[in-house]
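On clarity, I found the account of how folds are encoded harder to follow than it need be. An entry of this sort, consisting of the sequence and the corresponding C-alpha cells, reads as follows:
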Amino acid sequence: MTNQIEYTLLDPTGNMTILVTTPTSEDMQPDIALRLMELEPSAEQTGFVGGMEPDSVTIRMAGGEFCGNAAMSAAALTAARFGLGAADITVRFKGAGISVPVRVAASGSGMAGTVGMPKPISVRNVVFPGGMTLPVVFFPGIAHAISETPIERIEAEALCPGFCRFLGTEAFGLMQYDRDKGTLTPLVYVESGGTLFWESSCASGTAALGYHLLGGGSALHAAVSEPGGTLTVDSDGSSLTLSGNVRIVKTAKAEIRP
C-alpha cells in the first residue's frame, strides 16, 4: 500500500522544517519523517500538523519534543492557509504536552515571528559520563547543554547520543556558545529517529541559552548569531520570548511506501 503525504517545507532562520498536513498515525511518524527528509535533504526536522484553526494549531514533532522554530513555522503556515497578514496563534505540542503563543506578521517575502517560550522544567549543572560538567536546561521532551568551551565536531557528535540517554530525554541539544562573539552553534540529537544535525538555528536551544544567561537577573536582550541567521531572545525576568523570521519554501506531495 502507498500513502500519499502532503507536506510543506519552511525555512525558520535556516532551520529547514517539514510540516506534514496529511493525518498520520503516531507510530508511523518517525519512519515517515526519515523518508521525507531523504526527499528533502535540506530539512533538519519534521513535524505533523493536527487541527488547524485561525487562532490555533496542533503539532507533534517526529520525536515528540518541543521546538520553537516548529512553533513559528506552524503559526506561519496556519496564517498563510487562512490568508492572514498578521495573527496571534496558539501552537499546541502533542507529545510534549505544552502550548505556546506565537505572533506572526507578514515581513518581506516571509513572516516575522515571536514565540512565548515555555519556562524550563529545571536548570542545573550535570556531571556527564566521562566527567564533563555542563549547565543543562530541561524543557518538555528536550534538554540543552550549554558549552562555552569549544568541543571538536567529531567529539560532539559522539557525545550527544550517550548524553541524551543518560538524561532520559527524547531529544538532546549541545549548544556551543561563544560569549565574546555572541555566536551559537547548535547540535541536536533525536533518539526516536537516531537523527543528529548541526542545525542552522535552534529556537529552543537559543531559549535555553537565554535562561542560562539570565541566571538570577531581571532582564535580558540578546541577538544570537547562528549559522542560518539571527534569533533574538528577550526577557523581563519572568517570561522569555524568542523572535526570528520564517519563509514558506514550497508545498508538495510524496508517495510513501510502508
Notes: Helices lie at 29-39, 68-81, 153-167, 203-214. The chain is about 20% helix and 50% strand. The chain has two domains: 3-115+245-256, 122-243.
